[in-house]
Design goal:
203 residues, mainly alpha, Arc Repressor Mutant, subunit A, Tetracycline Repressor, domain 2, 2 domains
Length: 203
């Protein structure tokens, strides 16, 4: 994998491999992707690619590891000392922005989950589970204080994931249903989700 002592050319090639792998994996999933496809997209020969990564799985794991922090940061940013509704709506907004700005990364994650998360299960069962439990405790405290409506805190988080990531994972369907002449769906989606969650959270 990449190392801190890489040359400029090695760093450039590593980034080209990651960019190519993101495109190929998000389009075809892990099973459908091949090293030949990734090498071609990166503009490298297959032997050259194998100099950096010994296997397709090694590329996939490294790519998921790079993306994980980006994926968890919006939930980590929910401030326990902030206003509950503002913090939750901020989380919804940040998740929707991720779908808008990083649709391939969202589809990569979705493909991994659909396959049973063979390369991410350990992280899901530790880091992600612990983070969700921590934020669920914050949501429960806000509910106990009467500051937001009583809801199942984990299912509230699940619903935010489902309603925001949909716009990346099912982008083709979203744009097909809205029609080619329709503007960017994200501003209206943001307004809709803010209204929906504001009413849901109201005491």
């Amino acid at each position: 994998m990449t190392s801190p002592r890489q040359t400029r050319i090695q760093r450039r090639n590593s980034e080209a491999i990651f960019e190519a792998a993101l495109e190929v994996f998000s389009a075809h999933g892990f099973r459908g992707a091949t090293l030949d496809q990734i090498a071609e997209a990166a503009g490298l020969s297959k032997p050259n690619l194998l100099y950096y990564f010994p296997s397709k799985e090694a590329i996939h794991v490294a790519l998921l590891s790079r993306l994980l922090a980006t994926w968890l940061d919006p939930l980590k940013a929910m401030n326990p000392a902030g206003d509950p509704v503002a913090e939750i709506l901020g989380y919804v907004r940040r998740k929707l922005e991720l779908s808008r700005d990083f649709p391939r990364e969202s589809r990569l994650f979705a493909n991994e989950i659909l396959q049973g998360a063979p390369r991410m299960r350990a992280v899901i069962e530790t880091d992600l589970k612990e983070l969700v439990a921590d934020k669920a405790a914050v949501l429960t405290r806000w509910m106990d204080e009467g500051r937001i409506a009583r809801l199942h805190p984990v299912h509230l988080i699940f619903s935010i994931w489902a309603m925001t990531q949909h716009y990346a994972d099912f982008e083709v369907q979203v744009r097909a249903v809205l029609g080619e002449g329709e503007p960017d769906p994200f501003p209206e989606a943001g307004l809709y989700l803010e209204t929906l969650f504001r009413r849901l959270l109201a005491v």
